[in-house]
Amino acid sequence: MVNISNETVTLNNGVKMPVLGLGVFRVEDSPELVNAVKSAIKNGYRSIDGAAIYGNEESMGKGISEGIKEAGISREDLFITSKVWNADLGYESTIAAYETSLKKLGLDYLDLYLIHWPVQGKYKEAWRALEYLYKQGRVRTIGVSNFQVHHLEDILKDAEIKPMINQIEFHPRLTQGKVREFCEKNNIQVEAWSPLMVGKLFDNKILKEIADKYNKSIAQVILRWDLENNIVTIPKSTNESRIIQNSNIFNFQLTREEVERISSLNQDLRVGPDPDNFDF
């Protein structure tokens, strides 16, 4: 087994975060999810990324507690993320949503709590709530998700605490240059959701050529490209062999030219909603 647990990035408050995690988006609250989380932990994953809106925090929590037991590790070895949903954005309501997520997950604290979407007129109050939770020592790191440059500028105008993370849709067809540049300048770590573009790149010739060179899968090449771009990545899978395969990306490196070739596939193409134009 490749030991992936010691590959981390240090966030702007000094907390270390694993560079690879398991995402659980669109997986039902089910034994399948419990097993996926358990097998990820068993195979060296130390970061699990969830959200209130996924409706599966109970199964995620069960997978975490059983995974900890079976792997013989402690809660402190894991990095657990959840996100506050749009309907709960506000000061009191965000704090209440945090408590609800903790309860469902069966945890005493989270390692990272994110504002899921930048709902205009609501996310600043929610950010104050996250700052409160952080100052109280209830959560180790706080951040945002799907924030564009102008959203980040708006938050930073009044923030006492700078976001540690911005989790965005990121893959070879959507490289988000401006957001990444802004985050780098402001020491905000970028994290990729949908890094594999829901499988839409698996027949790409350039990626296939690079994958063949290293005797790797296209998914492994894309995830490696994330790491070469200093981006934390959280591919989703419930299949144990795929979970293992996705983690087997620490024994090769792409050349600078290959990284650029993959980046040149960008078409500003989203598979998820546009953060400047959503209505939920």
UniProtKB/TrEMBL annotation:
Signal peptide: none
Single GO term (MF): oxidoreductase activity, acting on the CH-OH group of donors, NAD or NADP as acceptor
Name used for this protein in its record: Aldo/keto reductase, diketogulonate reductase
NADP-dependent oxidoreductase domain segment(s): 21-266
Ranges in a coiled coil: none
Lineage per the UniProt record: Bacteria, Bacillati, Bacillota, Clostridia, Eubacteriales
Keywords, alphabetical: NADP, Oxidoreductase
Record: active site: Y54
Superkingdom of this protein's organism: Bacteria
Keyword NADP in annotation: yes
Family to which the UniProt record says this protein belongs: Belongs to the aldo/keto reductase family.
InterPro entries: AKR, AKR5G, Aldo/ket_reductase_CS, NAD(P)_OxRdtase_dom_sf, NADP_OxRdtase_dom
Site residues (Lowers pKa of active site Tyr), renumbered to this chain: K83
Pfam families xrefs: Aldo_ket_red
Entry binding sites for substrate: H116
